[in-house]
Amino acid sequence: MYLLPSIVTAANISSGFVSVIFSIRYDFNFAAWAIIVSMVMDALDGRIARLAQATSRFGVEFDSLADLVSFGVAPAVMMYQLILHTLGNPGIAIALFYVLCGALRLARFNVRAFNGEPSTDFMGLPIPAAAGILASFVLSYQLFEISNTVPVNMIHLVSDRMPFLFKTTPIIMVFLSVLMVSNVPYAAFKKFKVDRPKSLQIIIFAFLAILMIVFYPQNTIFILFVGYLLLGLGLYLHRYWRFRKSLIETFQRKRNGSKSSEPGDINGK
Nearest CA to 79 among 147, 136, 159, 14? Predict the structure, then answer.
């Protein structure tokens, strides 16, 4: 039973390595799909380990090494071969920065898990999500390119923006890298239960998402990953502004209180 999750993790790292090979061959469509397969394997190995009660420190470390290859090195090589190589040395630096931030993200996650810190949310953008954004972007861009020659099913609201996103790829990669090592919390979805009040809405949303993936797989995967990124960032900014507003109100109350307690002169001034 301890071997089963490790086999799934091995499939994860194998798919990531295959993605690198496809990127070297300039077959970016298969390279992106290989990263998506790695994401599926990564989602399964932990759940299989918990169901089989076969969790171990070895499994945690092996999973992190697999994630670094599949979601750190593989997307960086794919994006370098696709667009970053045109920038010369800055392109190499951006790809390397992404890999380093991914490694730091995984190391921080392992330290928190080893110290037994609560993990209801992820601290920083999870590296599979960052890789998912890049892989789904490549899939949507490839779909946009072939749409000029053959009819394809695509969401035009998304596909029509692919040329602009392609030009801003270096900025997007730096932004994703910074988010991975940031303190922005992202939902882990580890404690989902069907008996909770909002579970029905989540199930309906998941059903609609699966339906969209069936008809528009490339575009829908991209929308889901970008939505996850923006949701976490939006909630973080909302909490920040609420916290800032609370501090200002507290300061003003203390200031008004101190003014009202000051003694006046004999004329009441």
Answer: 136
The DSSP secondary-structure symbol of 192 reads -
Long-range CB contacts (within 8 A, 24+) of 252-256:
none
Contact 139, 33 (CB under 8 A): yes
Cα 67 to Cα 127: distance, rounded to the nearest angstrom: 8
Least Cα distance to 170 among 48, 106, 86 occurs for 86
In whole angstroms, give the CA distance from residue 69 to residue 12. 9
CA 127 to CA 179: how far, in whole Å? Answer: 10
Assess contact for 124 and 179: CB atoms under 8 A: yes
Q: pLDDT by residue (tens digit) across 45-89?
A: 888 887 877 777 888 889 999 999 999 999 999 999 999 999 999
Contacts of 54 (CB under 8 A, 6+ apart): 1, 2, 4, 5, 48
Confidence grade of residue 268 (pLDDT, cut at 50, 70, 90): very low
d(CA 235, CA 237) in angstroms, rounded, equals 6
3-229: which CATH topology?
Four Helix Bundle (Hemerythrin (Met), subunit A) (1.20.120)
Q: Are 98 and 177 spatial neighbours (Cβ–Cβ below 8 Å)? A: yes
Neighbours of 189 (CB within 10 A): 11
Q: Whole-model pTM?
A: 0.86
Going by pLDDT thresholds of 50, 70 and 90, the confidence category of residue 121 is: confident
Q: How many CB atoms lie within 10 A of CB 17?
A: 17
